[in-house]
Amino acid sequence: MTELPTNTAADRVPLPQEAWYVGAASSRLTDAPVAIVIHGQAIVLFRDSEGRAHAMHDRCPHRGVALSLGTVSEGQIACAYHGWRFDGTGRCRHIPSLRPEQPVRTAPVRAYPTVERDFYVWVWTGKGEPNGQPLPIHGFDRYAWLQGATALACEAIMPIENNLDICHAAFTHPHMHPQWFRAQAAGFQPTRYELATDPGGLTVSAPGTLLRFDLPDRVTVGSSETFRLVLHHVPTTPGRCIQHWLLQREPTHEPAAPIWSDKEPEILAQDRHVLESAQRAYAYEGDAFEQSVEADATTLSARRSIRLASQGRMEEAFSGNRSICVLS
């Protein structure tokens, strides 16, 4: 297939900027700096001498070199070009070329509020002070987990909507998803889904189905008692995002770090294949071609919530319930 352009000036449905986003899994941030991008902002993560995670603008104010190319020394990040060192607040603490009597006078590097919770390093990308703390993962300490992340060539709204889509699994996930097996055995049957919206997101439920969306980017598939897949969708550059996934395993009485996996789960790879195809269409043609049916109510509700949050209009969000009857 011909590769169509995927770089766009901006995402069609940008996620809120005044929010907490996953910067990296805790296990991925060790002794070396880690470069990430959130909302087009180049950010470097590193740990200080006490193991605390910090996030700063990934650019040295001296000559613009990415600080992520440097090293961590004495709990500070040192630029690979001239050795300027910065602490976790972004303040320059040492310039090797200065004589001892010369003071260090430089503008600080922008530091981002950072929190480590549920074995993720979270970064606040807003301009103001953080609005509360990152949303905890319910019951995280009661289970073992498998953890990973995948770069997607599509904007973040697309995997969010996909994971709330109630009718794609029978087509996109052959031999993988319960909906596909049901359709093979009995054909498509009338199914009633309950959609409950609230200012923080929405919940979709039906027999054998439980989906939850939490602003700004989390989708939880399943319940904490049986199966659960927790997904965060971090916008990087226009038309691109990172999908951080966390798969619940067996119950545990001794909380431990999730097991990291570099292998993308097959069911997520199947989704990625169709989403990246759709991104090419949106990038090339825009979205005026879109046509929706009743089954799209779940995804359109999430889209509306994100738009209101991005525009600072959450007071217009409403709580309510509706039933959707579709063949699935």
TrEMBL record:
Molecular function terms, GO-annotated: 2 iron, 2 sulfur cluster binding; dioxygenase activity; metal ion binding
Keywords per UniProt: 2Fe-2S, Dioxygenase, Iron, Iron-sulfur, Metal-binding, Oxidoreductase
Sequence ranges assigned to domain Rieske in this UniProt record: 20-123
Entry-linked PROSITE patterns: RIESKE (PS51296)
UniProt name for this protein: Aromatic ring-hydroxylating dioxygenase subunit alpha
Lineage: Bacteria, Pseudomonadati, Pseudomonadota, Alphaproteobacteria, Acetobacterales
